[in-house]
Amino acid sequence: MKAVILAGGKGTRLRPYTNIVPKPLMPIGDKAILEIILDQLIRAGFEEIHLAVGYQADYIKTFLNGKLKYNNIIKFSHEKEPLSTAGPIKLVGSSLNEDFLVINGDTLTDLSYSDFIKFHKASGNIGTVAIYKKSISMDLGILKLDE
Predict the structure, then answer these.
(1) What is the rounded distance in angstroms from the CA atom of residue 6 to the CA atom of residue 49?
(2) Backbone φ, ψ for residue 16 (5° rounding)
(3) N or C, where is the chain less crowded by C-beta within 10 Å?
(4) Rounded to whole angstroms, how far apart are CA atoms 143 and 35?
(5) For residue 4, which of 81, 82, 76 has the smallest C-alpha distance?
(6) Which residues on adjacent β-strands are paired with residue 54?
(7) Is the pLDDT reported for residue 77 higher than 90?
(8) Phi and psi based region of residue 91 (left: phi greater than 0; alpha: psi -120 to 50; beta: remaining)
(9) How crowded is residue 56: how many other Cβ atoms within 10 Å of its Cβ?
(10) pLDDT in tens, 18-76
């Protein structure tokens, strides 16, 4: 199985932290978010993972080059300019000759990726999207200000 991890964004909502560390490398406990995702994918049976990088790509490459367990699994795809969501997939397109998973480099989930792929294949659909519905109650109103 193959996967594409989108890890080229600037992480603007987490600034100033992402001025120094790319969002996929933000630590959760003793591991980076990206490391958690990679370990989940490998446990689920993914054998080829394309990592679409852009902003601070050298930090991500350096971090992963020090992790031998990922050496034969990860293939880097570098965006010279931001390509939004679908653009990086097009860069890797010729390598994706079978069903594949696309995930953001900052998405943490307990979703079973192998079950998700099985569900997708059984559906016969061209694409399947995993979503999570979350209700949030808010006791505050929303103010909209103008000049």
Answers:
(1) 11
(2) -90, -5
(3) C
(4) 39
(5) 76
(6) 56
(7) no
(8) alpha
(9) 21
(10) 677 788 898 899 999 999 999 999 999 999 899 988 878 888 888 888 777 887 888 88
Residue carrying structure tokens 């601070």: 56
Q: What is the pLDDT of residue 17?
A: 66
Indicate the average pLDDT of the chain.
84
Contacts of 25 (CB under 8 A, 6+ apart): 32, 33, 34, 59, 60, 63
Buried b (16+ CB within 10 A) or exposed e, 8-28: bbebeeeeeebeebbbbbeee
Q: Structure pTM?
A: 0.81
> What pLDDT sits at residue 37?
95
Residue 100 half-sphere exposure toward CB, CA atoms < 13 A: 20
